[in-house]
Amino acid sequence: MIIKKILPILLTGILFFGIGMAAASGADTTPGSEADPLVSKSYVDGKTSYVPLQLQPGQSLIGDEGTEIILRSGEGTAIDNGANGVSDISSGRDLMSGMKVELNHLLLVPRADGRGIKVSTEAWVLIRGSYTIR
User: Fold this and answer.
1) DSSP 3-state assignment of 118?
2) How far apart are CA 37 and CA 48, in angstroms?
3) 127/49 Cα distance (integer angstroms)
4) Would the CA dihedral through 97, 98, 100, 101 be positive or negative?
5) pLDDT at residue 80, rounded to an integer
6) What is the pLDDT of residues 48-70, one digit of tens each?
7) With bands split at pLDDT 50, 70 and 90, how would you rate the model's confidence at 2?
8) Helix H or strand E segment including 10
9) Contact residues for 81 (Cβ-Cβ < 8 A; gap 6+)
10) Are 116 and 109 in contact (CB under 8 A)?
11) Distance (Å, rounded) from C-alpha 94 to C-alpha 24?
């Protein structure tokens, strides 16, 4: 008889203790915390959308790690880092220095080590990511 009265109280206590421990050990998902940071709209837009960019003959566009480049008009060639090329995702190959960049092909700069494209005519590119122009 006494077990029937104590058992529900004991089980309820164990349940509340378990819930408390789970809540205490979970990651902080408060907006703005390290686990759930707040970012600005311009940061998100810069990471998720392509930006049109005009290049003049002789200019080089050097991408940082993860930069994506699409040559929309004009003529350009790849710039490698001396060992590896720019990834042409559309054709599935590496473009080494001097190799022609095809129009509308998606290029990926895998590391910030000097890779990119050099244009020989006025050109327009779509770019997503960080870059420098030389």
Assistant:
1) strand
2) 17
3) 8
4) positive
5) 96
6) 789 999 999 999 999 999 999 99
7) low
8) helix 2-25
9) 111, 113, 114, 115
10) yes
11) 49
> Distance between terminal CA atoms of the chain?
87
Q: Give the angle subtended at the CA of 82 by the CAs of 110 and 94, to the nearest 5°.
A: 50
DSSP string, 41-102: HHHHHHHHS-EEEEE-TT-EEEE-TT-EEEEEES-EEEE--SS--EEETTTTEEEPTTPBPP
* Averaged pLDDT score across all residues of the chain: 87
CA-wise closest residue to 95 among 119, 73, 117, 111: 117
Q: Which pTM value belongs to this model? A: 0.68
- Burial of 55 from C-beta contacts in 10 A (0-12 / 13-18 / 19+): buried
User: Kind of pairing, strands 68-73 and 60-63?
Assistant: unpaired
Q: What's the one-letter identity of residue 18?
A: G
H-helix or E-strand spanning residue 106: strand 106-108
What domains lie within the chain, and their CATH numbers?
51-133 (2.60.120.1030)
